Amino acid sequence: MAKTSLEMVEEFKSFIDFVQELKTMDEEHWNSPISEGKWSLKDVISHIMLWDKYFYEEGIEKIKLGQSVTVRHLKFDEFNANAREYAKTQTRDSIINQFLEYRNKIIDDITGLPEEDYIKEYKDGDRKKFSIRGYLRGFISHDKHHKKQIEKYVKSIQ
What region holds the DinB-like domain (predicted)? Predict the structure, then answer.
């Protein structure tokens, strides 16, 4: 059975508590690869935060303001490489605080929307379909993927 918009928002929101718990990790573990050949925890959270920022500014906020959605299909590898570079310029706390800022902005803007606004399809910057429901569906699974990696890492260092 398909999840309701409320259930999806709650699931999307649940990642906030998970990330806040990571504030207790020391900088050494925060900056170490989460497994052989993988990114650091800081890189992963920076990556998630910057995707949230992008989709907020180019999608969710535009919908809220009644403007055209400008989300485009980006080159993932390039975007992610830039996220890793950005992480090098930030502290653990600043990355977490930025994550909280953008995740909360998204949640604030979509909480309480009528169901039809969740499923409404907008044309994005590439003239493809964009919906809040589709965005949430994609990023909840993205969060789960990274959460599993991070949990495995945390278990390995305890």
Answer: 18-150
